[in-house]
Design a protein that fits this description.
By secondary structure, this protein is an alpha/beta fold. The protein has helices at residues 24-33, 68-85, 158-174; strands at 5-7, 13-15, 18-19, 53-56, 61-62, 88-90, 117-125, 131-139, 144-153. 25% of the residues lie in helices and 25% in strands. Strands 4, 5, 6, 7, 8 and 9 form a 6-stranded mixed sheet that branches. The protein has a 3-stranded antiparallel sheet with strand order 1-2-3, with no helix packed on it.
Length: 181
């Protein structure tokens, strides 16, 4: 319900034309609530602790023997980039339950419960000699895919593709752009 208060011509506060009277108890309550010391009005700093996001970056799956080295290198670069940002805590690969997570299937989230996020990927070689890198970023507790992309480049572009994946993951999780070199 909407109540309207107004000041009368005499300067007294009125409600609906009737004078508004404050009881002595209300005045005492207002005075009791008011801080007695001026220094209590100064805001105290709030300490906030930041917890890095636990992320699992298992080795990317290689499409063949010739892609094994680039697949391992890409996952290592991504892990290194994310760790160096300070926003992520990388899980030790020895703690992974399912190290062969496929990009084509939804991961078994129960085996990844130690992580908050999971990065899975695959590296394949195209017929013209170029390399195709595909990845997906999964949120473990919700079971949703947060990000997914593929990059195609020459074998010399492996570092650049890995850094691009790191940048995308970092931005998606932290909402802050970051470049990795």
């Amino acid at each position: 319900m909407f109540r309207r208060y107004a000041a009368s011509r005499s300067g007294k506060l009125t409600r609906g034309g009737r004078p508004l009277r404050l009881s002595v108890a209300a005045v005492i309550l207002i005075v009791a609530i008011t801080p007695a010391r001026a220094d209590s009005l100064v805001q105290q700093p709030v300490l906030r602790t930041y917890q890095p996001v636990a992320i699992a970056v298992p080795d990317f799956v290689a499409g063949g023997i010739s892609e094994a080295e680039p697949a391992h290198a890409i996952s290592e670069i991504i892990a290194s980039d994310l760790k160096s940002s300070g926003a992520f805590a990388l899980l030790d690969p020895a703690t992974f339950g399912d190290t062969n997570a496929s990009i084509d299937e939804v991961p078994k989230f129960d085996t990844w419960r130690k992580a908050q996020e999971l990065v899975v990927g695959r590296v394949t070689r195209l017929t013209d000699g170029r390399i195709k890198v595909q990845f997906r970023l999964w949120h473990i507790s919700s079971g949703r895919q947060l990000l997914g992309a593929q990059y195609v480049g020459t074998p010399g572009d492996v570092n650049r593709m890995a850094h691009a994946i790191s940048e995308g993951i970092h931005e998606r999780i932290t909402n802050k752009k970051r470049t990795f070199d």
